[in-house]
Design goal:
Layout: H1 2-10, H2 17-28, E1 36-43, E2 48-55, E3 61-62, E4 67-68, H3 75-80, E5 86-88, H4 100-107, E6 114-121, E7 127-135, H5 148-204, H6 217-235, H7 240-247, H8 251-260
Antiparallel strand pairs: 1-2, 1-7, 2-3, 2-4, 5-6, 6-7
Helix pairs in contact: 2-5, 7-8
Length: about 260
C-alpha cells in the first residue's frame, strides 16, 4: 500500500497535461479491475476532444480516439455533455457505434463490456474532460474501490494546478505583448515628434537668399531686435521684469529699447 501511495503522489510531479494523463493511466491500469481506461479532454484551441487510452497491454495510446467537438452524435461527446457520472451496462461490442476508431477499441474488450464515466472540471468548475472505465459488471461505485479513487482525486488536483499555471503564463504573455505594443506606440510618437521638430526647425531657418535683400546691417539688426521684443511682450503679457530676465538684460536697458522701437504704450 505504501508503494501505491508513493506512485499516487508521483502524479504531483507532472508538469503538463500529456505526461499527467499518461502517468495516471499507466499507474491506474495494473491496479484496477478494468479491461481498459480512457481519459478524454477538451482542446479548445483545436476545437476537438483529445483522448488517451490504455488496455490490458498496458501501453498508452494517444490521439487515435480524438474527435471533433461538434460531433454531437459521438458517444464520447454525449458523455462529455452530461454533468454527472454515466453508466452503460453493455456496449454490445461497439456494434452501434459509427466511429471506426472507437468501435474497434470497444470490440477488443470482453463480451458484455460496459462503460462508466466520471467527469472532471476546469478552473471554473465547468466540465472539461472524462475518465472512462471499461469492464464487466460495472456499477456506480466501481471507481471508489481500491486505490483507483485516490489516483483520480490526485489526478484532478494536479490537473487544476497545471491549468492554473498555464493560465498564469498566458496572462504574463498577454501583458508582455501589450507592453510591447505600448512601447512600439510610444516609439512611433517619439519619432513623429522628432520628425516634426526637425521639420519646424528647417522651415523656420532663414533662407540664404533672403540675406541678399539686406543692404543696411544696422537697420536689419534693429528690425530683428524689435521683433523679439514684441514677441516677448505678447508671450509674457507685457511683464517687464520677466522680459528683462528672459533676455538677460537690465530693466533699464529694456525700457530704453522698448521706447526706442515704439513698443511702449
Amino acid at each position: 500500500m505504501k508503494h501505491r501511495l508513493k506512485n499516487a503522489l508521483s502524479l504531483l510531479t507532472c508538469l503538463d497535461v500529456d505526461s499527467l494523463i499518461s502517468q495516471f493511466l499507466e499507474l491506474s491500469m495494473p491496479r484496477s479491475p478494468f479491461s481498459a481506461l480512457i481519459v478524454s479532454m477538451i482542446n479548445k484551441s483545436e476545437n476537438r476532444l483529445e483522448s488517451w487510452s490504455i488496455d490490458l497491454n498496458e501501453k498508452v495510446e494517444k490521439k487515435h480516439l480524438d474527435v471533433d467537438i461538434t460531433e454531437a452524435d459521438h458517444p464520447l461527446i454525449q458523455l462529455l455533455l452530461q454533468p454527472q457520472s454515466i453508466l452503460w451496462n453493455d456496449l454490445k461490442q461497439g456494434s452501434y457505434i459509427s466511429d471506426h476508431a472507437l468501435q474497434q477499441f470497444i470490440a477488443k474488450q470482453p463480451v458484455h463490456c460496459g462503460l462508466f464515466s466520471i467527469p472532471f472540471t476546469d478552473l471554473n468548475n465547468k466540465p472539461c474532460g472524462l475518465i472512462i472505465m471499461l469492464g464487466q459488471d460495472l456499477d456506480e461505485t466501481v471507481y471508489e474501490q481500491g486505490i483507483f479513487s485516490i489516483y483520480c482525486n490526485i489526478f484532478h488536483h494536479q490537473l487544476k494546478s497545471i491549468l492554473a499555471f498555464s493560465q498564469s503564463q498566458q496572462k504574463i504573455a498577454d501583458l508582455q505583448y501589450l507592453l510591447k505594443l505600448q512601447q512600439e506606440k510610444e516609439e512611433k510618437i517619439n519619432q513623429a515628434l522628432r520628425s516634426l521638430s526637425v521639420s519646424n526647425l528647417t522651415s523656420t531657418r532663414v533662407s540664404p537668399h533672403s540675406f541678399a535683400e539686406v543692404n543696411d546691417l544696422t537697420l536689419a539688426t534693429e528690425h530683428y531686435e524689435a521683433s523679439i521684443l514684441r514677441y516677448q511682450q505678447e508671450s509674457s503679457n507685457n511683464d517687464l521684469n520677466l522680459i528683462a530676465e528672459n533676455l538677460n538684460i537690465s530693466k533699464r536697458s529694456l525700457l530704453y529699447k522698448l521706447k526706442k522701437y515704439g513698443c511702449l504704450e
